[in-house]
């Protein structure tokens, strides 16, 4: 049974990776489209991403003089998701759905919280790099929890489909 589920787990992993990669691609597509005169596409993308990010220009990376669709911290989180999905199979079997200790997810919030807090309280001024790195840490951690969840959900849907098909036969 486990051997039969392994290819399905890899497909679920690949699907998740594709989704987060497209998401990051769309973030980068906004400034590229704007720089190339595709203002309709760029406006739609910026508007879409305005629902998930403040998009403050001074806190955003830029390509060709145009800001990314999200700020540097959000970009770090989303890029971290892609990186986390990519490196996940290097340290854990993709078909392993055993839950990870939640402690690691909460610990991944510490750097981003410290970076934000120190700035709010005037102790230090965070930078594009500090926002990106703290977001990256959180994104990688989130991916390590998302992969087993996606694999398990896909596995459960497949088992339900097979059970339903067997009942009808």
Please explain how this structure is put together:
The protein is an all-alpha fold and 169 residues long. The protein has one domain (2-164). Helices cover 74% and strands 2% of the residues. It has 5 helices and 2 strands. It has a two-stranded antiparallel ribbon. Helix 4 packs antiparallel against helix 5 (128-168). It is globular.
How would you briefly describe this protein structure?
The protein has a two-stranded antiparallel sheet. The chain has helices at 2-35, 39-49, 72-91, 102-120, 128-168, and strands at residues 62-63, 66-67.
Question: What portion of residues belong to β-strands?
Answer: under 5%
What overall form do the CA principal axes indicate?
A: globular
What letter string, H or E per element, gives the SSE order?
Answer: HHEEHHH
Number of helices, where a helix is a run of at least 4 consecutive DSSP H or I residues: 5
Q: Structurally, how many domains make up the residues? A: 1
Strand tally is 2
Please tell me how large the radius of gyration is: 19 Å
* Regions with little confidence, pLDDT below 50 for 5+ residues: none
N/C terminus separation = 21 Å
Could you tell me the mean pLDDT? 94
Task: Strand order, main sheet: write it out.
Answer: 1-2
Helix content: over 70%
How is the biggest beta sheet arranged?
A: 2 strands, antiparallel
Structural class: mainly alpha
Topology:
Blueprint (H helix, E strand, L loop, with lengths): L1 H34 L3 H11 L12 E2 L2 E2 L4 H20 L10 H19 L7 H41 L1
Antiparallel strand pairs: 1-2
Helix pairs in contact: 1-2, 1-3, 1-5, 3-5, 4-5
């Amino acid at each position: 049974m486990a051997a039969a589920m392994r290819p399905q787990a890899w497909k679920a992993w690949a699907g998740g990776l594709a989704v987060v990669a497209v998401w990051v691609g769309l973030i980068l597509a906004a400034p590229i489209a704007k720089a190339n005169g595709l203002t309709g596409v760029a406006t739609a993308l910026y508007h879409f991403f305005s629902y998930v990010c403040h998009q403050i220009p001074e806190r955003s990376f830029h390509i060709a003089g145009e800001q990314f669709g999200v700020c540097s911290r959000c970009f770090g989180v989303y890029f971290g998701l892609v990186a986390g999905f990519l490196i996940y199979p290097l340290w854990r079997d993709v078909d392993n759905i055993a839950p990870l200790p939640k402690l690691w997810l909460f610990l991944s919030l510490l750097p981003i919280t410290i970076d934000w807090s120190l700035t709010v309280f005037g102790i230090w001024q965070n930078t594009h790099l500090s926002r990106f790195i703290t977001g990256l840490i959180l994104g990688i951690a989130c991916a390590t929890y998302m992969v087993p969840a996606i694999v398990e959900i896909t596995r459960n849907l497949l088992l339900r489909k097979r059970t339903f098909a067997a009942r009808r036969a």
